[in-house]
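Posting this for the archive.
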Amino acid sequence: MLSFLKFYCNTSQPKQLRLWGVASLDAAKARGKGLYTAKRLRAWTRTFIVDRENLPFNLYGTWSTSMLQTGELAQDIFAHLQSLGPYIRAMDIVDFLDTPGIREQYSLTKTISLTTAQRWMHLMDYRWTKTPTGQYVDGHEREDVVEYRQETFLPTMEDT
């Protein structure tokens, strides 16, 4: 609306370019839009002139909020994944959300895709890694090692 009004009120342009319809179309074209947006600009501006508190509301970003942001769903998924043990996969989330109890609780009509489940796992700070092989583990506190040390090794060292 601001660009439209600037085009309309620009006194450096000839009068024929400062017409209401031409100015709205110029403002719409400047935003990469067409005739429909020019009509909407004129309607919004007329409404704003009548009531200075009535500004158009931008819906951008309001329709794409994740279900994970509701809180309870993320906690339920996290608890389910923890109950599965150390080895989990994205398909576990898809299967979990496809159960009748969860569908009813969260009013789901269909389950999520595997790609969405992978994104959700990433948002929940899960990472895909391979288990390291050949890793050294110091077992000096294991029960059998402690027993050998106390009953065999140390008495033998004491005798020598």
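The first helix runs from residue 2 to 9. Helices lie at 2-9, 20-30, 35-50, 72-83, 90-97, 100-105, 114-123, 143-159.
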